[in-house]
Amino acid sequence: MPISIDQVIDRLPAWSGRSPVATPLVGGLTNQIHRVDVDDTSYVVRIPGEDTHLLAIDRGNELHNTRAAAEAGVSPRVVHHLPDLDVLVLEFIPAETLTIPAMRRPGMPAELAGVLKQLHAGPRFRDEFDMFRLARRYLSICQDRRIRIPDGYLDGLPRVAEIESAFARRPVPTVPCHNDLLAANVLDDGRRLWLIDFEYSGNNDPTFDLGNTCQEQEYDEPRIVEMCAAYFGEAFPDKLARMRLNMIMSDVGWSLWAAIQAAVSAIDYDFRAWAEDRWARARSAMESADFSRWLRDVGSSP
How far apart are CA 58 and CA 247, in angstroms? Predict the structure, then answer.
């Protein structure tokens, strides 16, 4: 049985006798999230969801990386940690939780590129993140547990292998990456952006963060180009190609994540439709006339 917010409050000596007031926060797809007001100070409490180990979440890696991201100045600080429960208590940032329409406001791609550049220049994360390896792990879990995967998924794997080979021929240095930039994982306090939820963070190709961000916000070509140019100084063809291919890989991996969630999650959300939609988008891109050009451009020089 999952732990309750009252049990968490009872476990924190710093809040003893201070009448904390907890309010659930909506929007999370994996965990329970609560705002807790203690006297004049507010906190965010993250309680892990059930069976999240199947989603390849390493809570030790998450804790280390959340602290590193806070040191880089892009994420709230960890205030308390209950290691036996994997509960995090973070400082509360008074800010707007962004949506896809908000992420499409003028100048937002460049602003996002700026905060990602700050994260990528910060302290190195504990573990590496490789979406090719993670997708294979998710597929193995689905097959072992007879979890339904999107129709035609296995037929697309040869093209996924082509992307992996293209990247392997021209590897890039890895940097600390978030890797899961849904709009709800970005906050805007009116002056700057903050990143939250480092469950899938790890050292990775920086263009995965850029591509994943573009894919999650369903950016059109001008916004993709804007983000690339803001990050690299110019929208170089090879960088755009890596972003485009990593947009595909974002859907390749997270579609299986959603398939697993559809089987195990207690959250009231249509993960099955989410998985099918993500895979359909990935398959469409891999079958497009541009796919061969993107593979070729990865090997070009800026």
Answer: 24
Fold of 5-92: Phosphorylase Kinase; domain 1 (3.30.200)
In tens, the pLDDT along 131-187 reads: 999 999 999 999 999 999 999 999 999 999 999 999 999 999 999 999 999 999 999
Q: Find how far residue 117's CA is from the centre of its chain.
A: 16
The CA distance from 217 to 61, in Å, is 26
Q: Which two tokens stand for residue 154?
A: 């296995």
Asked if pLDDT for residue 266 goes beyond 90, the answer is no
**pLDDT per residue over 62-100, tens digit each?**
999 999 999 999 999 999 999 988 999 999 999 999 999
CB 210 within 8 A of CB 92: no
Give the torsion sign (CA, 247, 249, 252, 257): negative
Tokens of 269: 């959300």
Burial group, residue 67, by CB count within 10 angstroms (0-12, 13-18, 19+) = middle
Dihedral sign of CA atoms 269, 271, 277, 282 in order: positive
What ranges do the domains of the chain cover? 5-92, 97-298
Please name the helix (run of DSSP H) or strand (run of DSSP E) that holds residue 91, with its range, or none: strand 87-91
Instruction: Indicate the fold that domain 97-298 takes in CATH.
Output: Aminoglycoside 3'-phosphotransferase; Chain: A, domain 2 (3.90.1200)
Per-residue pLDDT reduced to its tens digit, 158-170: 999 999 999 999 9
C-alpha closest to that of 133 among 200, 188, 229: 200
The residue whose two tokens read 């180990």 is 53
Q: How far out from the chain centre does Cα 6 lie? A: 28
Instruction: Say if residues 70 and 81 touch (Cβ distance below 8 Å).
Output: no
